[in-house]
Amino acid sequence: MRQATESCPAPSFETPAAGQSFTSTDDAQLRDTLKRCSPSTREAACAFRRTKSLDYLPAIVHGLIEHYVEREARTKLNRADDGLRLVEDLAIDSLTMLEIVFLAEDVLQISIDNEDLRPVRTVGDVKTFIASKLATNP
User: Fold this and answer.
1) Is residue 69 one of the residues assigned to a domain?
2) What's the CATH code of the domain at 78?
3) Residue 112 resides in a domain
4) pLDDT for 5-27, tens place per residue?
């Protein structure tokens, strides 16, 4: 995956009209939203907002999950593959999952129906689900 090192022209929480670019105010809003996430997560989110490239999705999903899991579970998350289970391995409960979903909706500018999340069990499932959601809502 590419590293996002450029300044982040992240949008506000409204998608701009075709041809419009994002402003530094939008950049600040996204960075503030992700202030408790790692710098690599913030940069990936900024790069995603700028390019809409799914190449940044794994880093964003990882960072959003990492933000909400207990400190002990972060080690598992950082060492594991996409088969890591959300409930059994990371102890993510339904309230935590909702927090992750709300943040993902803001960052990725998508809408997620809670019913659609029922089959999501692993980190890989989250990535696949969000990628398919982004593919249907360009």
Assistant:
1) yes
2) 1.10.1200.10
3) yes
4) 334 433 333 444 444 454 567 77
Q: What is the mean pLDDT of the chain?
A: 83
How large is the average pLDDT for residues 81-102? Answer: 94
Residue 11 lies in a domain: no
Write out the residue range of the structural domain in which residue 32 sits.
Answer: 24-136
107 domain residue, yes or no? yes
Q: How far is CA 75 from CA 21, 37, 56, 109, in A?
A: 38, 15, 21, 29
Is 0.70 surpassed by the pTM of this model? yes
Comparing 2-11, 32-41, 44-53, 73-82, which segment has the lowest mean pLDDT? 2-11
Could you give the number of structural domains in the chain? 1
